[in-house]
Specification:
about 160 residues; alpha+beta; Arc Repressor Mutant, subunit A; 2 domains; 3-stranded antiparallel beta sheet; 6 helices; about 20% strand; elongated
Length: about 160
């Protein structure tokens, strides 16, 4: 059973309670800042932090640690649910590998490759754009052949 809420335990001692549904959006944030993710049950839903507020809370040195209204039943979710396979970095790397291997890629191929990751079309499109930009910064030239289809040319 999927938990409703999770607690983000930051290295500086802040405990941020948010919805389980926000984990995919926070995957790079959690990985980069070495944040521990735990399942939690709460008594007071008012302590739940929305996705938009998490960055400002993380940067606020005066944020009050949020641990008082929790029951003691917490379990570590990092191994179960926060796999690297679902992060944007993983998607960009896979896109770059595919372009380097096949020399040509279409956006529809990317959508098929990552259909089980539950990413939105704009999210995949953004990762596709970022992967092309990273390749171009490495000296490759990504040429648009037609709508959604790109070819890699020389280095």
């Amino acid at each position: 059973m999927t938990p409703s809420y999770v607690m983000l335990k930051c290295p500086d001692g802040k405990n941020i309670i948010t919805s389980y549904n926000n984990l995919l959006s926070l995957s790079e944030f959690i990985e980069f800042f070495s944040i521990k993710v735990e399942n939690c049950k709460i008594d007071d839903v008012e302590n739940v932090v929305e996705l938009e507020e998490i960055a400002s809370i993380f940067c606020d040195s005066n944020y009050v640690k949020n641990s008082k209204n929790l029951t003691e039943e917490t379990t570590d979710l990092s191994d179960k649910n926060m796999t690297k396979d679902k992060s944007s970095r993983y998607i960009r790397n896979k896109i770059k590998e595919t372009i380097l291997e096949k020399k040509e890629i279409s956006f529809s191929q990317i959508c098929k490759m990552f259909s089980n990751f539950n990413y939105s079309i704009p999210g995949l499109n953004n990762n596709f754009k970022l992967a092309r930009q990273e390749l171009e910064s490495d000296g490759y030239n990504c040429v648009r052949l037609k709508r959604g289809v790109y070819r890699l040319e020389g280095r």
